[in-house]
Amino acid sequence: MKIQLLFFGITSDITGKREDSIAINEKTSVKNLKSLLIEKYPKLKNYASFSIAVNTEYANDTVIIKNNDIIALIPPVSGG
Predict the structure, then answer these.
(1) What digits encode the pLDDT tens for the residues 19-76?
(2) Does the N-terminal or the C-terminal CB of the chain have fewer CB atoms within 10 Å?
(3) Which sign does the torsion angle of CA 50, 54, 58, 62 carry?
């Protein structure tokens, strides 16, 4: 399966990319994807609290990713 990745904020700085596409196994969950991404981009481990959106919807760790999904990595938001 192939998915598209979109990187925002610090995740873009860490990966050096704004977008990418990768192949993943069927029935990959968001939790598994996070592990794969940390393996591919080890510096993401320092920002392990980043959120994942699947097709513009925030997704919890149990969501199963489907072929051609668009996955956004959203860094922690802070402000005041």
Answers:
(1) 999 999 999 999 999 999 999 999 988 876 889 999 999 999 999 999 999 999 998 7
(2) C
(3) negative
Which class does domain 2-74 fall in?
A: alpha beta
Q: For 67-71, which contacts have Cβ atoms below 8 Å and span 24 or more sequence positions?
A: 67/1, 67/2, 67/3, 67/26, 68/1, 68/2, 68/3, 68/4, 69/3, 69/4, 70/3, 70/4, 70/6, 71/3, 71/4, 71/5, 71/6, 71/33
Predicted TM-score (pTM) of the model is 0.89
Residue 24 near residue 33 (C-beta atoms within 8 A): yes
Domain borders along the chain are 2-74
Q: Which residue is listed with tokens 């990745």?
A: 5
